[in-house]
Amino acid sequence: MIKVNPARLLEDLAALRQIGGQGTGVVREAFTATDLEGRRWLARRFTDAGLRPVWDPVGNLFGLPETEKPAVLIGSHSDSQPEGGWLDGSYGVVCGLEIARAAQEAGLQGIAVVSFADEEGTFEPLLGSRVWSGELALSTLQDRTDRMGRKLADTLASVPELRAAKQVPHQLFKAYIEAHIEQGPVLDDAGEAIGVVETIVGMQHVEVVVVGDQNHAGTTPMDRRHDAVMSFVAFAHAVDEAFCSEAGPATVWTFGRVNVTPNATSIIPGRVDAMLQIRDPDQARLNHLAARAQMIAKGISAKRSVEIRTQVVAELPPAPLDAALAGTLIAAAGRLAPGRWRRMVSGALHDAVPVSRIMPSAMLFVPSIAGKSHCFEEDTRSEDLVQGCAVLSAAIETLLLPGP
Amino acid sequence: MIKVNPARLLEDLAALRQIGGQGTGVVREAFTATDLEGRRWLARRFTDAGLRPVWDPVGNLFGLPETEKPAVLIGSHSDSQPEGGWLDGSYGVVCGLEIARAAQEAGLQGIAVVSFADEEGTFEPLLGSRVWSGELALSTLQDRTDRMGRKLADTLASVPELRAAKQVPHQLFKAYIEAHIEQGPVLDDAGEAIGVVETIVGMQHVEVVVVGDQNHAGTTPMDRRHDAVMSFVAFAHAVDEAFCSEAGPATVWTFGRVNVTPNATSIIPGRVDAMLQIRDPDQARLNHLAARAQMIAKGISAKRSVEIRTQVVAELPPAPLDAALAGTLIAAAGRLAPGRWRRMVSGALHDAVPVSRIMPSAMLFVPSIAGKSHCFEEDTRSEDLVQGCAVLSAAIETLLLPGP
Fold first, then answer.
1. A interface test, pick of B199, B227, B253, B254 with most A CB neighbours within 10 Å
2. What residue spans define the domains of chain B?
C-alpha cells in the first residue's frame, strides 16, 4: 500500500519554490538559469528516489525506474510564465517524485516521472511534450526564437546535459497521468478538492478583420459612415448573443485582442483587427460556433457595407482522455474525497494533450484559490495539495498491482 | 462691381500647391520650411495686391489695406496636415487675395486677408486664431512642443518676421468671412456648389474606462467573467442604439480610439480605454447625449459587475455664426447658384470658431469630391472653386457698398 508522505511532498514543493522565487511566485522561464537550476535539483531528487535522470534532445527531463515492464509516467512541467505561480505544473512533477518514492517504500516499482520542457511557450507552447510525442519535429524548430531573440538551437546547444541526449522511447511507458492545479475557479467555488479531467477542450481561433472607410469624424454624416469600430461592436455583440443561446455548458469565447486603425479620437476608424477564440470539448460544436460567427459577419458586412473577413487561423481538436484511467482516478477520489470531487473539462491546454495521442492519459486537478494562476498570487491550500497527491497515488497503486 | 478673375484665382492656387507639393497633395506643416515659404509667397502677393503684409507674434500673416475704416477680413489658414490636401484652408486665403485684388480693380477698398498660423494643430489646433482672438494666451504655450519635440517658443523665435511682430488690433476689422472646402460629402452628393454655414458644431469628448477582471481565457467559465472588451461592446452597442433614436439631424458620434489591455488572444481583457466623441450644433443636445452615455455606462456596469468610468474630458461649445452675414452669403448664393446651395452645419472646426467670439463671422463651403480631405486625394472641381469665390465676392461687395 503506497503511503505518500505529506511533509515530504510539501517540503519538496517549498524547496522548488525557492529556485527562481520572487515574492510569493516564481520566475523560471524555460531554459533560463532558474529553470535549469530547478530541473537539475529535480534530477538529483530523482537519483535520491532511485530513478535514473535522463534528458532527451528537446530538454525533457525523465526520472526512469530500473524496471523492464512499461512504467506509469507521472509528471507535468516545472517551467513558469514570465511572472508565474509557484505551483502550476511543478505540482504534478513533485507529486510524481513523491509517489515514486512512496511506491518504492511500499516495495512497488514501475513509476517514472517527467518534467516536460517549455510548456509555457517561451519558444513554443507545450514544446517538450509535442516534440516527444512526435507532433512537432525538433529539426523544424531550430530557428525559433524566444522574446529576447535567442535561437532554440543555440539554447539547447548551451545545456551540457543535452549534448549527448537520446530519444526516450514511448514504449517505456504504458500510461501518463498528470496532476495540475485547476487554474480556474470551479473547484474552489464549489468547495471541492478533486477534479477528474475527462476531456481537454479544443480551440478555434477566428481572425476577424473589419475594413471600413477611414474618414473625418466631424464632417461625415452618420448615414455616410462605414465605421470599422461600430461594425466590430455590432459583430461582437451579435456573436455574444448567438453564442449565449447556442453554446454548451463548457463553451467559452473571448475577443482577447482588438486593434483599431488609425486609433485617433477625431477619425472614423478604417480598420479593426481582432481575434475570437472559442474553446469547447466538442469538435462539432466548435465547428458550428466558428461557422456561426462567419455567418454573422456576412450579415453585418452586408447591412453596413463594410468588409468583415473571418478566417479560422488556428485549430486544435479536443483531446478526450482515457476513460478507463479516468475511472481509476474517480474510484480513488470517491474513496478518499467522497462528495468533494467532480468530473471536469479542462479549459486550459496541458502536456497531457499531445501525450494522450500516443498513450492512455489522465489528468487530475486540485483547486486554485479564487481561480488565480499565471500570477504571483497563485495558491492552493496545503490540505488540497496533499489530498490530490493521495488520490493520485491510490489510483496508481491500482495500476501497478498485478491484475486479477 | 467686383469681378473676380477665375484664371488668376486658379493660377495662385496652383502656385501655392507647388510649395511643399507632394504628388497631388501638399506637406506644409505649421512653421516648417514649406509652410513659411508658402506664407512668404503670400506676403509678396499681398504687396502686389496693394495690401501691407503684417505678421503678428504667433505667426498669423495679415494683408492690411491702407484704409481708415474697419475692413472685412477674409481668410483661413495655409498650413497643412502631415499629409495634406492642396486646398483645405489655402482656398479661403487665396479667395481673400483674389477678392482684395478684384475689389481694388473695381475701385473698392476695405478688404483685408489673413493666413492664420497652425490651424492643423502642429502645436495646438487653431493656434493662431485662438491666440489672436484672446482665447489662448501665447505666454502659457511657450513650452508646447510639436511631434519632433521642438518648442513653440524656439520655433517662433527662429522666424525673422516675428522678432518685432506686434499685435494686430481686432478693431481694424468689422467682420470675418472664411471660405473653405467642405471636407465632407454633403454638397458633392447633392450636386450642389455652395454651403452657407450657420453654425459650427460643438463637441464633447467622453473618456470611457472599463475595468474588468483580467483572467485565463480557457479556465474561466462564462458566468464568472468580467470581460472588459465584452462590456465595452455592450456599452458601445447600447450607446449607438440610444443615440440613433435621440440624436438630431446633424449629430455625429465616434469611438475613434479603443485600447485593450493586455490585448492577448488567450487572456480575458482586464481593461479597455476608449474615447467617445460627440458633435452637435446644439449645446443642450450635446449635454443630453453625454449624460445618456454616462447613464448607459452605469447600467452595463451594474449588470456585468465591471467598473465603467465615463468622464467628459474635453468640451467645446457650438459656435453659431452671424445670421446677418450668413444672410448676405445666402442672397449671393441664391443669385449666382440658384438651386445649388444649402444652409449647413460645419462638423469640422475652423478658424471662424474663435474669431466668431470677437466679431461677426461667416463661412462658405465649396464641395469636396467624394468628401475627401486631409489626404493627398483631396480635390474640388475648378468651376466650384471659381463659383465659391464669385459668391463670396458678391456678398462682400454688399458689405463694402455704403448702406442706404
1. B254
2. 6-200+319-400, 202-316
